[in-house]
Write a structure and sequence with these properties.
This protein is an alpha/beta fold and 245 residues long. It has helices spanning 46-53, 75-81, 97-108, 112-125, 141-153, 171-186, 221-228, 233-240, and strands at 6-17, 20-31, 35-39, 61-68, 82-85, 159-163, 190-195, 206-211, 214-219.
Length: 245
């Protein structure tokens, strides 16, 4: 089945947790075909924004719209189209890679033929094919992340939302995770990810720089660097937040 084209629009989105304003009037538009980066330090509002997009939190005010192939989907269709990859994963240490995929097969209600095709491809592209019988508790940090990614991708979502997928992994695994995400984005999936590594902004098709719930700037990374006359996003962040010396 062809990949659905997804669009997400946010207009003046706000989220309060008591007296704390986690998001303060954020407006964005995300589309299929490239990695959209939500970049900023801890406490910037990235996780809150992703959880709202995933339907796990409701905004305090503002609007959120999601279209699939240009149409507003029914709630179940939208749920089926979404995949959320949390920062802290909850895999079962005593289950092997293939046992995890079988668990998610049953969870998603995927028939055996589709499961064989999808699981074989995911094991191959994540490099876990040779380790499919290894228990999750025995995997390296990078392999553990890739197993979690394979599990959430098993039902072929149109929208993939990832919260800090490269945090806590070695540089080689970090590069491999990026290569995986870029390959899915090229196939037409809407990939939105958060990161506190400001250098990763330059790997995205578009980027939103957040600080304390506010959107500092948004756009094509190369154009933003040129516009701000900066050598990197750390320099932009320091200048925008008034912390540059």
């Amino acid at each position: 089945m062809a990949q659905q084209k997804a669009e997400i629009s946010l207009d003046n989105l706000r989220k309060n947790f008591g007296a704390t304003q986690a998001l303060d009037g954020v407006s964005l538009r995300l589309e299929s075909g490239g990695i959209y980066g939500l970049v900023g330090p801890n406490g910037a509002g990235k996780t809150t924004l992703l959880r709202i997009l995933a339907g796990l939190l409701k905004p305090s005010s503002g609007s959120l719209g999601i279209l699939l192939d240009g149409k507003k989907p029914q709630p179940q269709a939208l749920k089926d189209a979404l995949a959320y990859f949390p920062q802290e994963q909850s895999l079962y240490p005593d289950l092997s890679c293939i046992e995890h995929l079988r668990f998610f097969r049953d969870l998603y209600g995927i028939d055996e033929r589709e499961f064989q095709e999808r699981s074989s491809r995911l094991l191959e592209i994540t490099g876990l094919e040779k380790f499919q019988d290894r228990r999750a508790g025995q995997l390296s940090g990078g392999m553990y992340k890739k197993l979690g990614l394979a599990c959430v991708l098993l039902h072929s979502p149109a929208i993939l939302l990832l919260d800090e997928p490269t945090i806590g992994v070695d540089p080689i695994s970090r590069r491999e995770v990026w290569a995986l995400l870029q390959s899915f984005a090229r196939e037409g999936m809407l990939v939105a990810m958060s990161t506190s590594y400001l250098d990763e902004a330059e790997r995205c098709a578009r980027v939103a720089l957040l600080e304390a719930g506010k959107l500092l700037l948004e756009g094509d990374p190369a154009e933003l660097l040129k516009q701000e006359k900066a050598s990197g996003f750390a320099e932009i962040f320091l200048a925008r937040t008034g912390t540059a010396k």
